[in-house]
Specification:
alpha+beta, single chain, about 350 residues, 7-stranded antiparallel β-sheet, about 25% helix, globular
Length: about 350
């Protein structure tokens, strides 16, 4: 009997020999993880057995890479994967842990961290707390804060976080709030912005999180960016990043010149409406941007040359300037979700 497939999608994987990071199509089965160079490949490039394995998330072995988790096999071999956004990482980790638990008959995973351990009450659900903090009406308010000739966009102070935890009755006092906030930081639900908070997170302070009005933090998928006093041209360039992120993830994109397909990480913002795409293996700067205001997006059943395509789940974006972009989702549901989200952004964004 074939093992049941639990989850599949694009993740960036670290190579075992050359230490390079490359996007892979990853399939989680009941007894292991298979990874393929391309989704259409028939044979996996490798397989990780889950019996006796452990999962470390967040994995802090790479200071410049966020959203990494590590799977350690019974032979003490480490496999590193990087997700495109926080909720995606948590979903993969949750399902992998559940699969391991089912195989090992209830073996409990103990998270290993390079930072000191913080003991939390069993009733505290950091994931649920994170979602409450992100609530647009009742959550922590994101601000644009100016300090030392820099503007920190879509962020908030450490004091605001602890104020919210106390005021929301999530904790009994500020000391307990500091402990919870430190755990949120350690788990990757919060990110430091600015030298003060970054130095504390790196271990130079007594606590990794600072209950301080001069310490800045942000949600990892909030659209945070920092800009220094610059020329008018730079300000215009930054304008397209001011929009709120409404969807993100990996898709296949066809190149305009060579017509080859590559995995790209896409971030959809509205008001202004832009779809930025990045190299999923690394790099903070986008490879390109699609201005969505006035665009048309539709599903397509044939390839860009007009022939019946062997590729499934294609869709096309035609910009107001009549530039055509062909993208491929992993499944019909994902394609529909992207089309609907882009349609909404194109109508509401600038």
């Amino acid at each position: 009997m074939e093992p049941k497939q639990i989850r599949e999608g694009y993740l960036v994987k670290k190579g075992n020999v050359f230490n390079t990071w490359k996007p892979m199509w990853v399939v989680l089965l009941e007894d292991g993880i298979e990874f393929y160079k391309k989704k259409s490949d028939n044979s996996p490039k490798g397989m990780i057995p889950l019996k006796g394995s452990t999962v470390t998330s967040p994995c802090q072995d790479f200071s410049k890479r966020m959203l990494v988790f590590k799977i350690t096999s019974t032979k003490q071999q480490d496999q590193y994967f990087q997700a495109a956004y926080l909720e995606e990482r948590d979903a993969w980790v949750r399902d992998i842990k559940k699969a391991i638990k089912c195989i090992d008959g209830g073996q409990k995973f103990s998270r290993k961290s390079t930072r000191r351990s913080i003991r939390l009450p069993e009733t505290v659900d950091l994931g649920a707390l994170y979602l409450s903090m992100k609530d647009t009406e009742k959550g922590v308010k994101e601000l644009n804060i100016e300090k030392d000739k820099k503007i920190f966009n879509h962020c908030f102070t450490g004091s605001c976080v602890v104020d919210w935890l106390v005021g929301n009755n999530s904790v009994r006092n500020r000391q307990e709030g500091l402990m919870i906030a430190s755990s949120l930081l350690n788990e990757g639900y919060l990110q430091p912005a600015g030298d003060l908070s970054k130095n504390a997170a790196d271990g130079t302070a007594e606590n990794p999180f600072l209950d301080n009005p001069d310490a800045f933090y942000y949600f990892p998928d909030s659209g945070f960016f920092c800009e220094e006093n610059s020329s008018d041209d730079d300000v215009i360039l930054k304008e397209e990043f001011r929009g709120v992120i409404i969807k993100q993830g990996c898709l296949l994109k066809q190149g305009h010149r060579r017509k080859n397909w590559k995995v790209r990480k896409f971030i959809l913002r509205e008001d202004p409406a832009y779809l930025h795409y990045y190299d999923p293996a690394g790099g903070e700067d986008p490879l390109g941007a699609i201005h969505l205001r006035g665009c048309v997006v539709t599903s397509v059943e044939s390839n860009p040359e007009g022939k019946k395509s062997e590729e499934e789940n294609l869709f096309e974006i035609i910009t107001a300037d009549e530039v055509h972009y062909f993208l491929q989702a992993a499944n019909p549901k994902e394609r529909t979700e992207w089309i609907k989200a882009i349609q909404v952004a194109s109508r509401t964004g600038k």
